[in-house]
Amino acid sequence: MNVVNTIAEMRVLRRQLAETVGFVPTMGFLHEGHLSLVRQARDENASVIVSIFVNPTQFGPSEDFEQYPRDTERDLAFLAGEGTDVVFMPSAAEMYPERFDSWVEVGELTRRLEGAIRPGHFRGVTTVVAKLFNIVQPTRAYFGQKDTQQAAVIRKMTADLDMNLEVITLPTVREPDGLAMSSRNTYLDPEQRRAATVLYRALSLARELRARGESNAGEIRRKMAELIQQEPLATIEYISVAD
């Protein structure tokens, strides 16, 4: 497994990979959700490239960039075990050199839901992903459905800018009690960890209501909200029912 830190090194290695390349962009502190993407990429491509980069431009001023969990040695061991060919681990200075001032921004899709409560977040995401796509030149790129809006934004960017790759999303990987696996779950104390399962219970309720014939999205949202509000540690930022 090759581990590289510069764009120049990454491009040299990419030129040596003549067949299909699967790409999994991550911010590190990998878990089974990430590894499921790597395995799918391994199954569908001749080579697999994974990036590890905690992208500062997608964090707001009061968010958790400095606290975001990191464990490079552990991540590299996981990726070696999955047969990854190349790991690209650039620094912030490598990705955003002095006087960097070009941004990629998707329009309407980024102004609602997560975009409404985290201004600038998706601009940071789309800019870094566009840069990574340009550097890695993948055949296919893999994302989890946990970040559904992010995946939709990246699909839109890829289509609008005529990027020559396929964006593939895979189902959310969950803990036995339904909590979506996430690097940030390490922030939760035992009581918060217990409370967090209310999100999965609300999603399961929505699925059950739809299966029973409920077609009114407003009613589904209302019942989801009622369930979440029963958990004192939970605060609702948004609930959306979308196709």
Overall description:
The protein is built from ten helices and six strands; from the N terminus they run E-H-E-H-E-H-E-H-H-H-E-H-E-H-H-H. By secondary structure, it is α/β, with parallel strands linked by helices. The protein folds into two domains: 2-170, Rossmann fold, CATH 3.40.50.620; 188-243, no CATH class. The protein has a six-stranded parallel β-sheet, with helices on both faces. Helix 9 (198-211) runs antiparallel to helix 10 (217-229). The longest helix is centred in the middle third of the chain and has 16 residues, at 121-136. The protein is globular.
Q: How many structural domains?
A: 2
| Overall residue-averaged pLDDT value | 97
- Give the beta-strand count: 6
CATH architecture of the largest domain: 3-Layer(aba) Sandwich
Radius of gyration: 19 Å
In CATH, the homologous superfamily of the largest domain goes by the name HUPs
Low-confidence segments, ≥5 residues, pLDDT <50? none
How many helices in DSSP terms? 10
From the spread of the alpha carbons, the general shape counts as globular
SSE string, helices as H and strands as E: EHEHEHEHHHEHEHHH
Main beta sheet, described?
Answer: 6 strands, parallel
Q: What is the CA-CA span between the terminal residues? A: 40 Å
Strand content bin: 5-15%
Structural class: alpha/beta
For the biggest β-sheet, the strand order reads 1-4-3-2-5-6
As a percent range, the share of helical residues equals: 40-55%
CATH class of the largest domain: Alpha Beta
- Enter the CATH topology name of the largest domain: Rossmann fold
